[in-house]
Amino acid sequence: MNELIKNTLQIISKISSSKKGYLLQLTDQGYKILTLWGGDSDDFKKLNDFLFSLHKTEGIDSEKVLSQPSVSDFLKEKTFASFFINELNYFSERNLYIYILLFSYEADEFTDECKNRILSILSILSQQVKEWFEYKSESLTSSLSEGTIEKNKIFDEWEEKFNILINTSPDLIFILDNAGKITLINNTGKDILEYSPEELKRKHFLDIVDKEDTNALANSLNRALSDKKQIKFKTHLCSLSGQVFPFEFSCKTISVNGKVLGLLGIGKNITEKLKYETELQKIKPKLIERERLLNLERARFEQQKSVIEELNRLKYDFISSVSHEFRTTLASIIGFSETIESDPDLSESMKKEFNRVIMSEGKRLAKLINYLLDNSSLEDRLVLINKADVEVIKLVQTVVEANYESAYVKNISVTFEHPPEEITIEADRENLFQVLNALVNNAIRFTGELGRVKLIVNNLYNEVEIVVSDTGIGIPERDQPYLFQRFFRVSQRMSDIPSIGVGLVFVKQIIDSHKGLITVQSEVGSGTTFVVKLPKRSKIEKNEVKI
Q1: Do the beta carbons of residue 221 and residue 231 sit within 8 Å?
Q2: What value does the mean pLDDT take over residues 432-454?
Q3: Which DSSP string corresponds to 126-167?
Q4: How many whole angstroms separate alpha carbon 427 and alpha carbon 394?
Q5: What is the pLDDT of residue 141?
Q6: In degrees rounded to 5, what are phi and psi of residue 301?
Q7: Superfamily of structural domain 165-269
Q8: Does domain 284-378 have CATH number 3.40.50.2020?
Q9: Backbone dihedral angles phi then psi of residue 366, each to the nearest 5 degrees
Q10: CA–CA gap between residue 315 and residue 413 (Å, rounded)
Q11: Strand order in the sheet with 527-535
Q12: What tens digit of pLDDT does each residue of 48-84 get?
C-alpha cells in the first residue's frame, strides 16, 4: 500500500479518534488485510472469519453487522467500546470488495457527526485505493507472459505425477462429467473392463454397469450430484467379453464456485471379498456347532468337578466324624480303666459300674466298626441278581413282620395298604427283601415314639410301585441330591445309627440292576417318603408259548 493511502488513513484515524483499524479485501475465495495500524492481524482473525462467512451467504450490511451477536462478543473480548465498518470500493470484474474498519476504546465514539467527517474523506481514500489497484494490475499484466511459462511447467509436472498416481493404483479410478460420461479412467479400470481408451472416452458410466444394477446406480449418482457429499455404493461392472465384476465405490462431486463439474470415483474389486464371505457363511454353522459342543463339554466338566469336590468334602467330613467317634469312645474306656488301676480304695460297686461303662463303650465301638465294614463291603461288591417270580404283596408283608418288634418297642404304628389281587414280578427275592427291609428299618429308626410308618403297594399298568413313608425327623433339602452317594451318612452322628447291613448306595444298586427307579421326598420335621418302582413282565412274555 503506497504512502498516500497511509497518510489518508492517519487523517481518518485522528478525526475519528480510532486507536486501531485496517482495510479488508473480500472475495468469494477468501479475505486479506491490505493495511493495518495499531494492532496485529491475528487479533482480528475471528472477526474476519465471520465477515467472510457473512459475505458468502447474504452479503455485508454495515447496520446489520453492528447488531450481530458474534460482533458484539468479539468487541467485548477485545475491550472495544465502539466499532465502524463501511464499504470503500467494489471491483466488479474481480468480484472484489474493500472495506474500512475502525475501532475505539471510547463508548459512542462514532456519532453521526463523526461518521459524516469520516465519509467526507472516504471518497478521497476510495479513489486512491482504486488507482493503486489499477497500477498493480498493470504491473501484473507485464509479468504475466513470463509467469505463464513457469506455471505451465509446474502444471505439466503435477499432471504427470497425478497420472502416475492413478495408473499405479490397484483400484479403479474414474472421473465423470456432469452428464455422467467418462472423461478419465486409469489403467486398472481399462484392464478389468477390457476396453481401449478410445472406446471408453465419452462412454456413459451406466453403459458398463450390469443391467440389473442400472436403476439403483442411476439413483446413487443423482444423489451424489445433488447432495454434493461423498457417497458409497455397490454395483457390478461388465467387461467387453461379458464378465461381471462386483465393485464397491466411493464417489465425491467436483465443483468450482458452487457449480458441479463432474464426479470423482474410486472402486475396489470385491470378488475375493465376497468369495471369502461366502466361505465364512459355510463355515459359520460348523463353528457355532463346535462352540455349542465345547460349551457342553465345559458344563459337563464343571458338573464333574463339582461332584468330585462335593465327594471330597463328604469324605473329609466322614473321616472327621469317624475319628471323633473313635476318640470319644476310647477316651471313656481309657479314663475308666485308669481310674480302676490307679485307685486301690475304689469300692467293688464302683468297679462294677466302671466295668459296665467300659464294656458298653467297647460294644459301642465294635458296633460302629462293624457298621462301617459291613456297609463298605456291601457298597463295593458286585451285585449279583438271580431273578425268579416274586409275589410283591407277600414279600412286603414279610418285611413288615420282620420289623414289627422294633416298631413295637418305640410304640410306632406300622400300616400296610395293597390291592386285593396278587402282583408277581421277576426279581431277586433276597436282594429285594434287603432293599425294602433297609427302607422300613430306616423309617422306624428315624421316627420318634408314637409315630407312624406306612407301606403302600400300587399296581400300575407296566410297573409296581412300593411306597415307604414315615413321620420321622426328615432329611434336609440340601442333602437329598447326595442321599444315594457314599459318605452321605456323615451328616448324622455315627453313634446314633445302628447297623442295618445295607447302605442306601447298595439299595440304589439293587434297584438299578432291576431296571427300576427309586426317589425320595422329604421335609425336615415332617417325615420322609421313598418311592420304588419296578417293571412288570410284558404281556408278550406272559403269553409266550413254547413249542
Answers
A1: no
A2: 92
A3: HHHHHHHHHHHHHHHHHTHHHHHHHHHHHHHHHHHHHHHHHH
A4: 14
A5: 58
A6: -65, -45
A7: PAS domain (3.30.450.20)
A8: no
A9: -65, -40
A10: 36
A11: 413-417, 452-459, 463-470, 527-535, 517-523
A12: 888 888 888 778 887 788 888 888 888 888 888 888 8
CA distance 366 to 124: 133
Question: Is 270 a residue whose pLDDT tops 50?
Answer: yes
- pTM beyond cutoff 0.85: no
Q: Map residue 462 onto helix, strand or coil.
A: coil
Residue 436: alpha-carbon gap to chain centroid: 54
Confidence of residue 488 (pLDDT cuts 50, 70, 90): low
pLDDT band at 545 (very low <50, low <70, confident <90, very high): very low
Angle 321-325-328 (CA atoms, 0-180°, nearest 5)? Answer: 135
CA distance 18 to 84: 9
Q: CATH 1.10.287.130 in the chain, residues?
A: 284-378
Q: How many CB atoms lie within 10 A of CB 129?
A: 24
CATH 3.30.565.10 domain locations along the chain: 382-542
Task: Give CATH 3.30.450.20 domain extents, the chain.
Answer: 165-269
Query: What's the CA angle centered on 535, arms 533 and 541, to 5 degrees?
Result: 170
Question: Which fold does the domain 3-142 belong to in CATH?
Answer: Beta-Lactamase (3.30.450)
What are the angstrom distances between the C-alpha of 416 and each of 44, 244, 395, 464, 535?
109, 87, 12, 15, 21
Distance of CA 445 to the CA centre of its chain: 55
Where do you find CATH 3.30.450.40 in the chain?
Answer: 3-142
Topology at the third CATH level for domain 382-542: Heat Shock Protein 90 (3.30.565)
pLDDT digits (tens, 9 = 90+) for 491-511: 444 334 443 334 677 788 889
